[in-house]
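Form 12-C: Joint structure prediction
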Amino acid sequence: MSQVAVQTKNEAVEKNRAFKRIISKFGPLIGLILLTAVLTILSPKFLTINNVMNIARQSSINALLAIGMLLPILTAGIDLSVGSLLALSIMMMGIVTVNMGMHPLLGILVCLSVGAAFGWLNGILLTKLRLPHPFISTLGTMNIARGIALIVTGAAPIAGFPYMIQFLGREFVGPIPVSFLLVIVVYVFFHIFLTRTQTGRYIYAIGGNPEAARLSGINIDRVLIIVYTISGFMAGLAGLVMVGRVNSAFPLAGLSYELDAIAAVIIGGASFLGGVGTVWGTLIGALIIAVLRNGLNLLNVSADFQMTVIGAVIIAAVFVDVLRQRKSKKA
Amino acid sequence: MKKKIRLFSVAAAFMGMVLLAGCNSGQEANGGENTERVAVVLKTLSSPYWKYVEAGAKAAGKELGIDVTVVGPNSESEVMQQVNMIEDQLSQSPGALVVSPTQPDTVVPVLEGANVPVLLIDTDADLKNKTSFIGTENYEAGYEGGKLLASMLQKGDKAAIVSGALGNTATDERVKGAKAALKEAGIEVVAEQPADSDKTKAMSVMENILQKNNDIKGVFAANDDMALGVLRAVEAKGLDVKVIGTDGTLEAVESILAGKLAGTIAQSPYDMGYEGVKNALAAIKGKKVEKRMKSPVEVITKENAQEKLEFLKKIVE
Amino acid sequence: MVGHAENLLEMKGIKKSFNQNHVLKGIDLDIKAGEVHVLLGENGAGKSTLIKILTGAYQKDAGEIYWEGRAVHLQTPADAMRLGIATIYQELNVIPQLKVYENIFLGRELKRGGKMSMLDHKTMREEAKRCLEMLGQSPDLADMQLGKLGMGQQQLVEIAKALTLDAKLIIMDEPTSSLSVQEVHQLYKCVEQLKEKGIAILFISHKLEEIKRLGDRITILRDGFKIETLPVKTTDTDDWIELMVGRSLDEKFPKQTFTLGREGFRVENLEVAGASEPVSFRVRYGEIVGISGLVGAGRTELARAIFGADPRRNGKIFIDGKEVKIKSPRDAIDAGIAFITEDRKGEGLLLDQKLDFNITMANMKKFTKKSRLINLNEIREEAKRFIRELKIRPDHIELKARNLSGGNQQKVVIAKWLCTKAKVFIFDEPTRGIDVGAKVEVYRLMNQLVENGAIVIMISSELPEILGMCDRVLVMREGRITADLPIKEATQERIMKAATGG
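Section 2 - Result
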């Protein structure tokens, strides 16, 4: 076969691959746009500034949890404890600031560090105690944290937080909620972290092939501990935003939020097998869930039915992903 | 390849169906055009009690010729979802909003910003701009329950109380009322334990109580689900213990008719929903609405259970 | 049109493409009962696609398939199985926790009565024993737990399974690639027995000696075309290679000899797990040292111990006369050691990452700026440089490692280690499963490394490769070094003797 022929064949293959890359990169975004279009047609109130800002605000807690969740999932792990950590973090913050009357900054510090500390514990259980899978270690801490959250105040809620604590979840800059601005800042930070730092790349490497990563000199334990600590920290941060939105902390806060966070990450195109997934995909995943919930609320669709729809979307999103991968593997 | 396309279109068709179904149920609720609209956000729509509230609210809408939307999360633990639902209802600018807050404090920030009349039903919240609170006087309901139980026992008998989740103000008030009534009648309360308003939990809580005190003659439970759980534990031991519940759910009333549950203090969820919408319309029209409205309680025993049962069955239809 | 009745299988004008990528461009193949038919071609020539069409895993786009003279349509793997086509894959499809006979009847267990009745263990066991005996195996094997058997015996179990299915054609996809020398011989015997029973075998292999020994006819594929079908006995291996790569290879082993320098690498008293005595050896600049031995002789374990991949108790490692402390792969990399593992996909590559990610993965420090951010430009440039130098194809850093052929994947792994500026390169079976052209390129790279002053150690089970490329060979048995031979004194016989202890 002649040289020229080989080249044109390669070009065709290249073009095809470029097309697939675009689809795989923007698949979730296309989904979000289609969804928005459908809901705009169905409900006149949907595409109004007021409602878009509602979506931004409503998505922020899940968006913060989801970006934390992305890291364990990238390493082929999972963090089931984030919902409970959120509750424990805000209960502790409530005790420090409301019940004990200490400075709000100290409360914020407590909130974030309780999350991070439990996240660190998740990492230690996984790497040093060698529990077989993070599903188990985080299932354990999920129950432990929820239990403590209920015990500390005898299950009573805490209300009346100082303004400084409420700021993130409550305030607006112009029409834009501060909580969503926080989401944007956090996501930019995570994007840089995952794509432009050594640790970020190691996270992908560990998820893609742990043995290859280890033999390439990567300290897997260290990276995993960082991953779970960050995930826990994000639970604390999401809690802070939640307290701002509702001016109260209650021990059943964040119940089953880990599942919404996982859903956002998966809808955003990350692979449960690890090594594949992006920050922007996760943001779109979180937005898709928020847009669906909001849109269905506007259409007065019952909550039971909303669950069904979101379940279907998760399956559909992953199914599209599976089709895509099956294709790219055959080629 | 063909196979994939087929699968794809099946998936797409399914999604389409889902969305269509969604928009249909939406249009049903948004019937009229120039009528007033009242949005009702409840704790959940997935338990019998809240179905009665929903039925009452919708009946009021029909009778008054206004458009009523009733929504609520999947369960009473979905606190943030309720807050989001309130936000989403407010963004559609209803004439008035009727809310039953799951966690009273959590709805305050979002409702404070509301520029329409806000009425609370069933559970009160510390909200400055609320138009009214319509709900059972829980202390009174508990007191009635205690009185009913005492009337079935002898002075000096021992009784137990099964309370709701710690920090649940409604059930706490009921327990306080019941205790007061039992004390006045000279009944000794030997045990008080929480069972989080849950039937199964109430059953095991009661089993534990009976381990220590097998001479108990009566039990007051702060809601009907717990009362039915308690009853199961008692029946398993073959003891004759009078059990009184609170709420007046269909299941409880049926149990009373069957001669199992001794009685219940029925709240009026149907009335709460009805009154909530009715007064919301009054507020929209600028009429004066009372700040606090008591929703009546009713003592249900075997005598009047049949009547209550028929009423409950009617409204669920 | 009908096929020829004397052929068991006949494929005519088979075409297959994925998207716009034409993989098979009209392939003819005929197989007679009782023959060993070899399929030879470089990676990407279309062998595996052709096999997948034959086993019903893929559907052909055009062409006809005749089975015993009748046209057939193979829609699913079950169709192929029903006709009597069985396949022994490289990666075995077995469940190690189950017994041998249970594996043989996996998914089609015999029942005593109707669908819901109890399993008929007795008949299954007897049937399994009969087939194992047919392959010259002890019938007692049937009751062993499969996971306890070696790779070779596991493969024989798969073949026994094919026999219980009354297979008339058995496809073997590089069956000897992970077997020890003894196991290979056992397999050869087994193939000959199958032949005698009139069972045809479609044999895929890169090993020319093996083909020469077993094959009756050979079909050579290149770029999706069938080039030739030749009788094995009367043609020459060099001709095959020329047909396969489309040009004549100057040499199979481009050995270069350099002047021997001072000692650069030394291992002292290193204990390999399970060995009776510690291992010591040294490597000088200018030489390639081969490590030979049977599978399980402890060669990979030795390499992993040197590299810090497995914990080791004692032993010292010296580079340029200075001791280096190695407790983890990181320490080894920092000390300048590179370990090109045997299992590229399992231990070397991130299949879902791009080439630049893979190439720079082991030396991220180099690309991290003071701000702790990575310089993506530098990473790309460095990757491009290696892709150019090692002639990695396709030469596109945006490609995922998954999309490369075996030979090119191996080059990516080597690039990763070149990027770490390593001085000591340990290659573990570097040419396993890659085609002849790529093999030569890997050998040339080794020459280059030695020329540029690196230490090169090559673990290999291929004796020709050891004899063709190394200056010295260490032979291992049971975790010990049993011979240290200059290549002039090394012969197949001497190496085998040291390896088997016979």
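Section 3 - Comments
Residues 2-29 of chain B form the longest helix (28 residues). Residues 208 and 233 of chain B are 9 Å apart (CA to CA).
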